[in-house]
Amino acid sequence: MKTSLFLIFYILLISNVGSAQAASNDKKAAGSAEESFENRMIKKNKIISGELDKTATILDHFFTGGVNTDDKNETDLTITNRLDWVDGSDITYKPNVSISLHLPNLEKKWKLRFTSYDEDSQERGINKNRLKNTAPEEKYGVSLILLQKLGKLDVTFRPKVEFKDTVTTSFLLRFERKKQVGRLLFKPRLEFFGRSDTGAGQFAAINWDIPLGKIFTLSFLNEEQYENTNHLLSVTHGLALSHPYNDSMSQSYSLNFEYGRRPAYHLERYTFASSFSHRWYQNIIHYSFTPYLIWSEDRSFSGKLGISMSFDFIF
Predict the structure, then answer these.
(1) Which of the pair, 9 or 249, is modelled with greater confidence?
(2) For the segment 83-123, what is each residue's pLDDT rounded down to a tens digit?
(3) Nearest-10 Cα torsion for 117, 7, 5, 19
(4) What whole-number distance in Å separates Cα of residue 271 and Cα of residue 252?
(5) Long-range contacts of 255-259 (CB under 8 A, 24+ apart)
(6) How confident is the model over 201-220, as a mean pLDDT?
(7) How many helices (H) and strands (E) does the chain have?
(8) pLDDT recorded at residue 112
């Protein structure tokens, strides 16, 4: 039912734009050549994006008394369609929606974001770089993202309210920096977070990249996370080799080892994944294809094959 609603919403969105353009298309000369599918898609995407930006600008002027600005409006709507398959299970499909509302005058340095999924399970702390073999839990929420410079540190503060069976609040405070030392690019990150249902925690990462020639990059992953409520310690060590094919396509290979402390500190699983990503149609459609192998403790470290695919429509 939910999948059908998302598909209907997307079809209606495109159809309405198409009908709005019908009148102008009728005015064209009778012998004009029919536009390609790619050009039609790009035009419709620009129209929808323009309407989103126009709505955001109206809201921005309403809250600030009609102050004009030359800043580019970066409001965007992303519809993500995800397919997952793991050996021995059925294929699962789950769509998600994310809206980042940019109000240049009112915000200056923060964004308002609406999501239909559990943002923390995908992007916070140790979850960001671990392989996700299932779609995120469905949770509707709104977050306020504050971006600020503190010396040479990039600081992000994100309070959030989520709605599902109950109302849940959370916060995230992140400090991060990129530092070039010779050929090495260090990427330290420190996070403090808390949720009204699961309590507080902290996350720290010391990751770095080493360029190998002009194309390949070797990345080292060293991350730990501690959640106070369950006294749960999680650690990830890994490495990845990545390279671009061109400006829009890239390939990466990663090997990660994930550790936990239940009942004692030990290896819980390790994964090998190969991921191909493509930013298609001028930043309108993005897709990725990731086959992977998982060796987990609960299966006595016998390998299990899986495939994850995602398609993003960006307006």
Answers:
(1) 249
(2) 999 998 899 998 888 877 766 665 555 566 667 656 666 66
(3) 120
(4) 14
(5) 256/129, 256/130, 256/131, 256/221, 258/130, 258/234, 259/234, 259/235
(6) 94
(7) 4, 15
(8) 65
Per-residue DSSP letters for 30-98? TTPPPPPHHHHHHHHHHHHHHHHHHHHHHHHHHHHTS----SPP--EEEEEEEEEEETTS--EEEEEEE
* Residue 7 phi, psi dihedral angles, 5° rounding: -65, -40
Q: Take residue 209 and report the two structure tokens written for it.
A: 């990249």
pTM tops 0.70, yes or no: yes
Task: Write out the two tokens for 273.
Answer: 């994944």
Alpha carbons 297 and 259: distance in angstroms, whole number: 10
Length of the chain: 315
The token duo for 180 is: 């070039």
Question: Cα–Cα distance between 202 and 100 in angstroms, integer?
Answer: 26
Point out which residues pair with 242 in neighbouring strands. Answer: 217, 252
